[in-house]
Structures
1.
Amino acid sequence: MESQRLVFKRSSINEIILGNDIVKEIVSRLLRFRASRNCAVVTSETIAKWYLQPLLSELRSRGFAVSEIVVPDGEKHKNFETASTILSKLCDAKMDRDCPVIALGGGVICDLAGFVASIYKRGLPLVMLPTSLLAMVDACIGGKNGINLAQGKNLAGTFYQPFFTAIDVSVLRTLPLNQLAYGLVEAVKHGAIADTAYFRFILKNLNEIKSKQLPLMQRLIRRSIHIKKSFVAGDELDQGNRSHLNLGHTFGHALEAAGNYIRLHHGEAVGLGMLMAIKAAAAEGILEDDYSQGLKAILTELGLPTSLPAELDKKEILLNLSQDKKKSHNGYQFILPKALGRTTIHQIGCEKIESFLDSAMKI
Ligand SMILES: NC(=O)c1ccc[n+]([C@@H]2O[C@H](COP(=O)([O-])OP(=O)(O)OC[C@H]3O[C@@H](n4cnc5c(N)ncnc54)[C@H](O)[C@@H]3O)[C@@H](O)[C@H]2O)c1
């Protein structure tokens, strides 16, 4: 088992532990933190079937009183209604400010439980146990949480750091392959923004990754955590360097929304968004090295699209770009690649956005 520390100036240190079959270790750490023995586990129906009982048994055998809060699975339940149900259950369980909330699940559960833990009694100790690859390499690192509103995704949320995060790579055994691919897109993005060798490592080891060889997965998750850490540690509140992590996301969000969140999954949209960012960078004359062939090879091997669905309407994409959180009155901010492993922040004036999008769509 290995451990890493993520240090923020504003809040406490988040320790991240990474290993295989680490339930006992998780409970030992909880005991060492001297938190209350009254705790709650927040999970989804799908994850509960696989992983709730072993965790509950270990917690109870070590003296914890545990409330099980099992919510329906899926993005459509990442909303105020589910958050409110969880809050009520925390009240019913008489959770005080020193009672830990343990998030056991994918990015949806990490976001929901993190949000609830941050607002209930103005903050309970939070432990993250991510189970999807996306949550391991992305959602559980950096302290962002959130819920969706009818008007859009992740529109309400807070910055709130867990007091520790434990990643048990052995749970990836049950993760469906499409979900593995969606998580891997974020790891590929980490290579694309900061580490050429990591990008090539993923490209070279796609078969091993798809067969979920655990030592290799651990290596991959370790590298992604390092890269995400390097962007978020100095920018906890997302006001600077952290924006590089948005490579492919501004285009990606616009594509997802243009397809009503049905036609494209987030992971598929971000893969396409990264290809669009390469094209856009070439058109802007800032691309020094075109790595789209390598990126296409990865996406194809993962069964993800490399061309835009014909039915997506350019006007809709444009409209959704104009509603992006990063857009200001001066125009649009994009993260564009300069070369593999290097990105830059690029501003596009409102008057140029349509021709910029035209160039980006020629993937
Ligand atoms: N807070 C952040 O910084 C951040 C970053 C990226 C994404 N997110 C959020 O994360 C969410 C997406 O996360 P996700 O892709 O993990 O989705 P998810 O949580 O819906 O998980 C995807 C599916 O995989 C299942 N699953 C998860 N782990 C499993 C396992 N080990 N075995 C079997 N099935 C398993 C889940 O039950 C679900 O059906 C989005 O809501 C997104 O907004 C947050």
2.
Amino acid sequence: MTSRPPITPERADQEAPKLRLDGVHHAYRDLEVLDGVSLELATGELVTIVGPSGCGKSTIFSILTGATAPTSGHVLIDNSPLGPATERFAVMPQSDALLPWRRVLDNVTLGLEVQGVSRREARERVQPLLATFGLEQFARAYPFQLSGGMRQRAALLRTVVQDRSVLLLDEPFGALDALTRTDMQAWLESVWDTFRWSVLLITHDIREAVFLSDRIYVLSPRPARVVAEVAVQLPRPRRIEHLSSPEFVRTEAELRQVLHDARGDAAQR
Ligand SMILES: Nc1ncnc2c1ncn2[C@@H]1O[C@H](COP(=O)(O)OP(=O)(O)O)[C@@H](O)[C@H]1O
Ligand SMILES: [Mg+2]
């Protein structure tokens, strides 16, 4: 596994971002949800969006997948406007969305089958990844037989095998207990460090954001605006020991302060 310096402003200038949102506004009828959100994701970068519950995070993903059209603003992928959107993104939704009547293997191949890949080929693509995702012994099990962490790994495997250029992960560990969650964060970080997918991750868990991310965008309460962009200067691979390092503690405190201030500002608006 290689270690890589975080994206610096110079580096971001040299390469066109993989994905860019520019002044995106959205309202559901009268409910203003996004108030000019701009953000970027570079190739191979793991970027997190944090913000209070209900601020508009999942709405950003529905815009990216084409489920929702923004009221105004632009979304660019590889410098071109978002076309038939679903082709470039693989989404892991907020619920794991595993089908209870399909075995784990058949759940994991589902995304590929929806794309028109034959079941046989889909299984061949999934097979070598089952061990990495800790599912080798459970390929023939049904979702109800899995632990919460396994379910999330299966949902993530279904997402990554689709081989899209950007992964969108919406609160992937939101339903897990604290201990499982910590294990899953460490596991995801090490798998990500191997594969270097371009990931946009949503969470409301600040420590999770710091532990996993290259950069973090902090959103205000609804209607969401980006109130801060924070680079995480911790080396990769990240380790549990990093949780108590001065840089971790400093970054976490900075994020809590920004979120707190944004709440106060929103209350006064
Ligand atoms: N399809 C929809 N129609 C109307 N309102 C919606 C819809 N989806 C979400 N909302 C509302 O928009 C706001 C932002 O929702 P969401 O993007 O899911 O927030 P988050 O993911 O940050 O918790 C919430 O008040 C939510 O109730
Ligand atoms: Mg959400």
